[in-house]
Design a protein that fits this description.
The chain is mainly alpha-helical. The protein has helices at about 5-10, 15-35, 40-60, 65-90, 120-130, 135-145, 150-155, 160-195. The protein is built from eight helices and no strands. The protein is globular.
């Protein structure tokens, strides 16, 4: 069964079966969104539950013309809930100390788009989750949600330079983790083939 505007309308009226249908259809995808922002699955599941509670509470006040508009709205609720969760856990996520020392021209990234990294999505998610909170939050907003640095700065109450610096550092850490994983996998391959 797919989602249609009638199910959304019933859920807006508080009909439990319609809300359950929405939860069943969206919980897996929204858990993926929450997991990118949280350090572990337990936190992501908490954020998911809080997000659905907020969505079901607020949806009667919203108007949805299409299923995609509802989907985008629900995703935005989950992202905001995840950001609020991070803020509640840690008040000072972002390190400003490097802003004055790091010029935008110094921020170059190694382009690994041509390489076949051979690392599973689950491993990549673990790498993202292992990033410090500020780095992880900005990385997700920039890469997955397509926020500009200006939008990130406004959303998180930080400077544009802090956003750029944190993204730069997040990418460098992830590049290093990917390289380490590739070396590990190559070593295992060589050992297995030598036997």
């Amino acid at each position: 069964m797919g989602l249609d505007i009638d199910i959304i309308s019933e859920a807006q009226k508080g009909k439990a079966s319609a809300q359950e249908t929405i939860y069943d259809l969206y919980s897996s995808a929204m858990l993926g969104v929450c997991a990118r922002y949280c350090r572990n699955l337990a936190d992501a599941e908490d954020v998911l539950q809080d997000g659905f509670f907020k969505a079901f509470t607020k949806m009667s006040k919203s108007r949805f013309e299409t299923v995609p508009s509802f989907s985008a709205w629900l995703k935005r609720i989950m992202i905001n809930t995840a950001l609020n969760h991070i803020r509640a856990q840690k008040k000072n996520l972002f390190i400003d100390e490097w802003n004055d020392n790091l010029e935008s021209s110094d921020m170059t990234y190694e382009d690994s788009s041509d390489s076949n990294i051979g690392i599973s999505q689950k491993e990549i998610l673990k790498m993202i989750q292992s990033l410090p909170d500020g780095y992880r939050t900005i990385f997700n907003l920039f890469v997955f949600e397509k926020y500009s640095h200006q939008d990130i700065a406004v959303t998180l109450g930080i400077s544009v330079n802090t956003s750029k610096t944190q993204l730069f550092k997040a990418r460098k850490i992830l590049q290093q983790k990917i390289k380490e994983q590739q070396v590990k996998e190559e070593t295992i391959y060589l050992i297995n083939n030598a036997l």
